[in-house]
Design goal:
Layout (H helix, E strand, L loop, with lengths): L5 H13 L3 H14 L4 H9 L15 H12 L3 H11 L7 H14 L2 H14 L4 H13 L3 H14 L4 H13 L3 H14 L4 H13 L3 H14 L4 H13 L3 H14 L4 H13 L3 H14 L4 H13 L3 H14 L4 H13 L3 H14 L4 H13 L6 H10 L19 H15 L18 E7 L6 H12 L5 E7 L7 H9 L2 E4 L5 H10 L4 E4 L19 E4 L14 E4 L15 E4 L31 E4 L8 H13 L4 E5 L3 H13 L7 E4 L4 H7 L5 E3 L8 H8 L4 E4 L8 H8 L6 E2 L2 H13 L1 H14 L8 H20 L7 E2 L2
Parallel strand pairs: 1-2, 1-4, 2-3, 4-5, 5-6, 6-7, 7-14, 8-9, 8-11, 9-10, 11-12, 12-13
Helix pairs in contact: 1-2, 2-3, 4-5, 5-6, 6-7, 6-8, 7-8, 8-9, 8-10, 9-10, 10-11, 10-12, 11-12, 12-13, 12-14, 13-14, 14-15, 14-16, 15-16, 16-17, 16-18, 17-18, 18-19, 18-20, 19-20, 20-21, 20-22, 21-22, 25-26, 28-33, 33-34
């Protein structure tokens, strides 16, 4: 013993035990106790090896060569054979706790957890002071889903050996399995304090910190683990997940790539790498990552689901549906795959199968709020009035007491601005969170030309362009520098070319991630960023969470508040957002003096010689018209319209044909109300200029309630067709009133359903009165504010300049009234 200190001797003995060299360990400890009889630690270690006192009775263990043979098999990964031979030896050495511990270890490695539990439990029973057996038993019990028993076993291990770092780490895992995250972190910290180079404890601490939302701290823990063990694929994988949660997608991809270089068959790293690449807009690379995951694990349902999502983003709807079906073959109760397959089917125009998919998703997950919203909204698209009674109840719940849901569809269900605000806030919080990047310091010199960025997917043949093209054209280039950021996949057509020509900088960012788009926009030094989409189809409103500009505006595309802290202003007007409705908007309001909606006074109306008969309309009958999307039609409007058809002999109702199911259902509903279904005439899609021209064949446009005509009302008025509306409470229910006020026809705005019906009937049965309204519209459309694009643009610019002045002076956003 002269060459070893006591601590060195104890460490060497422990090393012998770990290698299975029991006789060497026993011999060394007996010598140590002989030299230092009062050394309690040496006596305790000797007791663990079956020696109750230095000269006591020894429990019989197999010979060292027998133990070495078992350990050799284990190290060769021949776990089942090692377990079988060890179990055979227990017949000869029934009280060898070392042998029973090997039985437990070999069975655990084979995945035979029940036999592993028996082995470790026998070892602990034979030698209650054998800390390794208690620790190993705790690990197996945790894997068997019995964390309370696991914790008890690990506590016994730590009572025997308080400085047992592995047992502290395993205690953390068991506590985490119980949801006791704070206590788990304490256990990991204890392990690291005992053994600072414990890579697993640092990595596991990172996982627990991630669960608590402490993402920066989690990253630091993973980095400590990787400093100890650079080739640690699980730490790299988990760090990638946290980086992805932080929207640091490039760093996440790099972490996953390191993980799969070390462990090429790390399925989850390939799968989550795909998610990070998809978030960056690199869909081809994402698809390749998902396919690598599936080549390793062909029954990976989530990888098929993610693959479907990426393919759907590419517009490859058939392939996406195929991927979802593969996921469902593996996991038939996969509600999310059914929901997203429903989205793909809906995008294909296959509404019946889409509804069936949403219904199946709800059957598997009854509280799946998004699937319920999509199903009910799609039933509105096909005018299935059987769901109308459920909509009000659902609207009071979905996105308010349930989890966050897509908000746009619900605008047509109820007229309730308070509910819309609550839903938007929930969606903004869950979908986007708050990830603002710091802005540069406020400038000390005011820019001569304000840099204004418009963000949209709709720089093509789309309603947004029909309305805004005149605004882009008339902008004052001396005072405004315009940027257009296009993230839509439709890149062709005359409307796109015109938009490109009217702005100073047109940037195609469809393949940029939100963060990349934000970095690009911020590099341009924007003063004002304008979201033309809001929470509508193909939105990328998440980019605004990164704070593209000091002033951010919700404009035109989404007819409601966005409920997002990152959106400073919404464009409105006094009719659209009256004082009693002002509390239901999270943004400050830029009140334009007339309508909030832009219009182009150079919009072409096709010079055609069509007749009513060309559209299936009777030449001499009164034609009521509503070219709103069919989903806006509820039984309330339809009941009134059918009564009007019964009141006005020979009259017809001219509607937009959105889909075959809507036409069939509306014809059926007409018959049920005593109206011949042939009196419903459906208009197909035609080029925009021809659409404007065909308005002259109608007599009166009748509006929908909860979600009014928007662009369709502007189209009708520009085409010389009067619009009768019922003014509601929320933004979407007041748009037509805003337009009528701005075109000088407030007499066509009603407040109740009774007044709406009465006014329509009066105009339909008094030709002189209707002729007077049409004459007034014909005069006003050339001089009223609604279609005065230059004056609208100056008012709009004044609103932007006042918002910038507030910012430049160091004041917070506040309501602005442009006069």
């Amino acid at each position: 013993m002269a060459k070893l200190t006591v601590d060195q001797a104890l460490r060497r003995a422990n090393s012998h035990v770990k290698k299975g060299e029991i006789e060497q360990a026993r011999s060394l400890l007996q010598a140590l106790v002989g030299a230092f009889p009062n050394n309690q630690r040496a006596r305790a270690e000797l007791a663990k090896l079956g020696v109750s006192n230095p000269g006591g009775i020894q429990i019989r263990h197999p010979k060292q060569e027998q133990l070495d043979a078992l350990i050799f098999l284990y190290n060769q990964a021949k776990f089942a054979e090692a377990a079988q031979r060890a179990e055979q030896l227990t017949n000869e050495f029934p009280n060898s706790f070392v042998l029973w511990n090997i039985v437990g270890a070999a069975n655990k490695a084979s995945g035979v957890l029940a036999k592993a539990e028996r082995g470790f439990r026998k070892a602990a029973e034979i030698n209650p002071d054998y800390a390794d057996a208690h620790n190993n038993l705790g690990v197996v019990l945790k894997e068997l889903g019995r964390p309370e028993e696991a914790i008890a076993a690990l506590q016994r291990a730590l009572a025997i050996r308080p400085d047992y770092a592995d047992a502290c780490n395993n205690m953390g895992l068991a506590l985490k399995a119980q949801g006791k995250i704070g206590e788990a972190i304490d256990a990991y910290q204890r392990a690291v304090k005992i053994k600072p180079d414990h890579a697993e404890a640092n990595s596991n601490m990172g996982n627990a910190l991630q669960d608590q939302g402490m993402l920066d701290e989690a990253i630091a823990a993973y980095r400590r683990a990787l400093a100890i063990r650079p080739e640690y694929p699980d730490a790299l994988y988990n760090m990638g997940n946290v980086l992805q949660d932080q929207h640091k997608f490039d760093e996440a991809v790099a972490a996953y790539q390191r993980a799969v270089r070390i462990k090429p068959d790390h399925t989850e790293a390939h799968n989550n790498m795909g998610n990070a690449l998809k978030a960056r807009g690199k869909l081809d690379d994402a698809i390749a990552a998902y396919q690598r995951a599936l080549s390793i694990k062909p029954d990976h349902a989530k990888a098929y689901y993610n693959l479907g999502n990426a393919l759907q983003d590419q517009g490859k709807l058939d392939d996406a549906i195929g991927a979802y079906l593969s996921a469902l073959k593996i996991k038939p109760d996969y509600a999310e795959a059914l929901n997203n397959m429903g989205n793909a089917l809906q995008n294909q125009g296959n509404f019946a199968d889409a509804i069936a998919a949403y219904r199946d998703a709800l059957a598997r997950k009854p509280d799946y709020a998004s699937a319920e919203v999509q199903m009910l909204h799609l039933k509105r698209h096909i005018c299935d009035f059987s769901v109308s009674g459920a909509l009000e109840e659902a609207a009071a719940r979905l996105g308010i007491t349930s989890g966050a849901v897509p908000t746009f569809g619900l605008l047509s269900w109820v007229d309730n601005p308070g509910q819309q605000l609550s839903r938007s806030r929930a969606w903004a919080t869950e979908k986007y969170g708050q990830s603002s990047l710091p802005l540069p310091a406020r400038p000390t010199v005011r820019s001569k030309r304000l840099k204004v960025g418009y963000f949209s997917a709709d720089f093509h043949d789309h309603a947004t362009m029909f309305l805004t093209i005149g605004l882009l054209r008339e902008h004052d280039s001396a005072n405004f520098e315009l940027f257009a950021y296009s993230y839509g996949r439709n890149k062709s057509g005359d409307w796109r070319k015109r938009a490109e020509g009217y702005v100073d900088h047109f940037l195609d960012v469809v393949d940029h991630s939100d963060r990349e788009m934000a970095d690009l926009a911020r590099s341009h030094g924007l003063d004002i960023a304008i979201d033309l989409k809001g929470y509508t189809t193909h939105t990328r409103s998440g980019v605004f969470q990164f704070r593209l500009a000091p002033i951010q505006i919700n404009y035109l595309g989404y007819p409601s508040t966005m409920g997002a802290d990152f959106m400073d202003y919404i464009l409105g007007d006094p009719v659209l957002i009256p004082e009693d409705q002002r509390p239901f908007y999270s943004e400050k309001v830029i009140y334009l003096p007339h309508s909030y909606m832009p219009n182009d006074d150079q919009r072409e109306i096709a010079d055609t010689d069509t007749k009513r008969a060309d559209f299936g309309l009777p030449e001499d009958a009164f034609v009521f018209c509503c070219f709103n999307n069919n989903y806006k039609i509820s039984p309330r409007e339809f009941d009134i319209w059918m009564r009007l058809l019964n009141e006005v002999d020979g009259s017809v109702l001219w509607l937009l044909k959105a889909n075959e199911w809507a036409e069939q259902n509306l014809r059926k509903e007409a018959e049920q109300r005593g109206v011949d279904s042939s009196r419903l005439v459906f208009a197909g899609m035609v080029p925009h200029a021809e659409h404007l021209a065909r308005h002259r064949h109608a007599d009166l446009f009748v509006d929908t309630f909860n979600c009014n005509a928007h662009t369709t009302a502007s189209d009708a008025l520009w085409g010389g067709l009067p619009v009768v509306t019922k003014q509601g409470k929320q933004f979407a229910a007041r748009v037509a009133a805003s337009l009528l006020a701005a075109v000088g026809l407030p007499e066509l705005i009603t407040e109740t359903e009774e007044a709406y019906e009465s006014l329509i009937l009066e105009l339909a049965t008094q030709p002189g009165k209707l002729a007077g309204i049409k004459a007034k519209l014909a005069e006003n459309r050339l001089k009223a504010p609604l279609f005065d694009t230059k004056h609208y643009t100056r008012d709009f610019e004044h609103g932007l300049q006042q918002a910038y002045d507030l910012y430049f002076s160091g004041r917070k956003p506040e309501d602005i009234r442009v006069t």
